[in-house]
TrEMBL record:
<dbReference type="GO" id="GO:0016787">
    <property type="term" value="F:hydrolase activity"/>
</dbReference>
<dbReference type="InterPro" id="IPR006047">
    <property type="entry name" value="GH13_cat_dom"/>
</dbReference>
<protein>
    <submittedName>
        <fullName>Glycoside hydrolase family 13 protein</fullName>
    </submittedName>
</protein>
<keyword id="KW-0378">Hydrolase</keyword>
<dbReference type="Pfam" id="PF11941">
    <property type="entry name" value="DUF3459"/>
</dbReference>
<dbReference type="InterPro" id="IPR045857">
    <property type="entry name" value="O16G_dom_2"/>
</dbReference>
<dbReference type="InterPro" id="IPR022567">
    <property type="entry name" value="DUF3459"/>
</dbReference>
<dbReference type="InterPro" id="IPR017853">
    <property type="entry name" value="GH"/>
</dbReference>
<dbReference type="Pfam" id="PF00128">
    <property type="entry name" value="Alpha-amylase"/>
</dbReference>
<comment type="similarity">
    <text>Belongs to the glycosyl hydrolase 13 family.</text>
</comment>
<feature type="domain" description="Glycosyl hydrolase family 13 catalytic">
    <location>
        <begin position="22"/>
        <end position="421"/>
    </location>
</feature>
Length: 567
């Protein structure tokens, strides 16, 4: 047990600076040996997460699902998919984690359900004009015979957003809307049943001890019921299916549900919006507590770009009083060691291509520095499973094992998101490097050669490993009071002739974080090194911070000699 476990349990604002670890259940650990990750596997590894130093786990959807989109196609929110376990196990897991000082955040997917959901099945069976269809977006087609889809909205997974149904007598019927795959019909959020049902789902999980929810595709729920085409340049709130003003009412209702508990529950939104002011509206005091900061995540490894993102992030959050979040990756995007090893290290959906040249050594170095940078910024921090091991994106998955609909809907041009979802390596050897029991089934996605060398076992005893770095980063974040102090840029402390175009430097209290993205620079005098992401360079004129390296420094107390040795 960490020393502060007991105090964290009662702190109602734990989420403001928490470290939240994302578990992609299917790929974390396979307890029963069928090749798919499950709740039993998570329970076995809870001590690992406690030792890593996380405050909470966000679980990607674990509900009953045909897994057409990795579980983001939910057939029943009140059941655990049998591949993952049972509801009783989920309840046990939440309680066991809590005993270790780790809270649970569950994923809620309000924009759509699975086509296998009882509501959608009932709607198909009931036919056009039925009340069952009003919970979705069923619509007659345009043109002669209704052969043309109602709008030309483009899917977030590329391609069209409408699929035509077949009437019971075999004739072509109405169309239904799906912003993602046809297996994920969109719900109609103007319908009172939809609102009531989701508030009830929230209570279902909050009553079982979930400390909060992650809200999937949170800006997409409400649609313009007149179904216009998307304007060429939609102004704020003018897009027919993104960020409509009416959506905030939904989250006000959810916040009220969250606040009705003795320990108020937390809402974390997946809000992809370029407009920072519109983004911040979701974080008003009666809406969500926090939302993922994808602006920071998508920026290239470039000091000016990162600095601008930090500043605009803090500026956008300040007026609503919400803490920022810092995210380097998740189950939808390219792993940081791969992304930062590329000439174009920004992230954009639809831009992934097979065979993009990557310098993994550079990427790893930068990902280590990025870990220190993101963990030193004020707000909460997200760590996607496997990033603490520095796993690269697996880019040579055989085409016949790829599962992700994004790949198929791009016509095979985009490799999709399976490369960051390859089952974790826990041990050097074994059938699946400890993902499942030895002798069990092979993992649902094959692990690449060399996976054992990046396993937890291989890294745990190695002081220079990514895992050891993450453990130190998270331990210091917990113990150093400076991480609760105000943030300020420290350009006056920039070493040598370095400029803000190459070095990011900021303080949190007496702690100074310096991240060097350019050639080596001298460290400022009068500071001790708490932690560095790579070996520092000794020099006659003082210690130097090499390229793509970050360091956490603390002002040397008066009367002490300056230390330069990393802890
Ligand atoms: C979110 C999820 C993603 C999923 C999509 C549709 O973006 O993170 O994995 O495919 O929503 O639910």
């Amino acid at each position: 047990m960490r020393e502060d476990d007991s105090t964290r349990g009662t702190d109602a604002t734990w989420w403001r600076d928490a470290v939240i670890y994302q578990v992609y259940v299917r790929s974390f650990a396979d307890g029963d040996g069928d090749g798919t990750g499950d709740l039993a596997g998570v329970r076995q590894h809870l001590p690992y997460l406690r030792d890593l130093g996380v405050d909470a786990i966000w679980f990607t959807p674990w509900y009953l699902s045909p897994l057409a989109d990795g579980g983001y196609d939910v057939a029943d929110y009140r059941e655990i998919d049998p591949q993952f376990g049972t509801l009783a196990e989920a309840e046990q897991l939440i309680a066991e984690a809590r005993d270790l000082g780790i809270r649970t955040i569950v994923d809620v997917v309000p924009n759509h359900v699975s086509a296998a959901h009882r509501w959608f099945q009932a709607a198909l069976a009931a036919g056009p004009g039925s009340p069952e269809r009003e919970r979705f977006w069923f619509h007659p087609g345009k043109g002669p015979g209704g052969d043309e889809m109602p709008t030309h909205w483009v899917s977030d997974f590329q391609g069209t957003t409408w699929t035509r149904t077949t009437n019971p007598d075999g004739t072509p019927g109405e169309w239904y809307l799906h912003l993602f795959t046809p297996e994920q019909p969109d719900l109609n959020w103007n319908h009172p049943d939809v609102r009531r049902e989701h508030e009830d789902i929230l209570r279902f999980w909050f009553d079982r001890g979930a400390a909060g929810i992650r809200i999937d595709s949170a800006a997409l729920l409400v649609k313009d019921a007149t179904l216009p085409e998307v304007p060429a340049h939609p102004g704020p709130g003018e897009h027919p299916h993104v960020d409509r003003d009416e959506i905030h009412d939904v989250y006000r209702g959810w916040r009220a549900v969250a606040e009705s508990y003795d320990e108020p529950r937390v809402l974390v939104g997946e809000v992809w919006l370029a407009d920072r002011a519109r983004f911040a509206q979701y974080l008003r005091p009666d809406e969500m507590h926090t939302a993922f900061n994808f602006d920071f995540m998508a920026r290239p490894w470039d000091a000016k770009a990162l600095r601008e993102s930090v500043q605009t992030t803090l500026d956008a959050h300040a007026p609503v009083g919400a803490p920022a979040t810092w995210v380097l990756s998740n189950h939808d995007v390219t792993r940081p060691v791969t992304r930062y090893g590329r000439e174009d290290s920004a992230f954009a959906f639809g831009a992934k291509r097979f065979g993009t040249p990557t310098d993994l050594a550079a990427g790893r170095r930068r990902a280590r520095a990025a870990a220190l940078l993101s963990a030193a910024l004020p707000g909460s921090l997200y760590v996607y499973q496997g990033d603490e091991l520095g796993l690269p994106e697996v880019e040579d998955l055989p085409l016949d094992v790829i599962n992700d609909p994004m790949h198929f809907r791009s016509g095979g041009v985009d490799p999709g998101r399976d490369g960051c979802r390859v089952p974790l390596p826990w041990t050097r050897g074994g059938t699946s490097h400890g993902f499942g029991p030895d002798g069990g089934a092979h993992p649902w996605l094959p692990q690449p050669a060399g996976w054992g060398e990046v396993s937890v076992e291989a890294q745990a005893g190695d002081d220079a490993s990514m895992l050891s770095l993450y453990r130190r980063v998270l331990a210091l974040r917990h113990t150093e009071p400076a991480f609760r102090a105000d943030f300020a840029w420290a350009d006056d402390l920039l070493p040598g002739d370095a400029t803000g175009d190459q070095v990011l430097a900021f303080t949190r209290g007496d702690l100074l974080c310096v991240v060097n993205l350019g050639p080596a620079v001298p460290l400022p005098a009068g500071y001790d090194v708490l932690l560095a992401s790579a070996d520092l360079e000794p020099g006659a004129a003082g210690t130097r911070l090499p390229t793509d390296t970050a360091a956490w420094l603390r002002r040397t107390p008066p009367g002490h000699a300056t230390g330069t040795t990393p802890a």
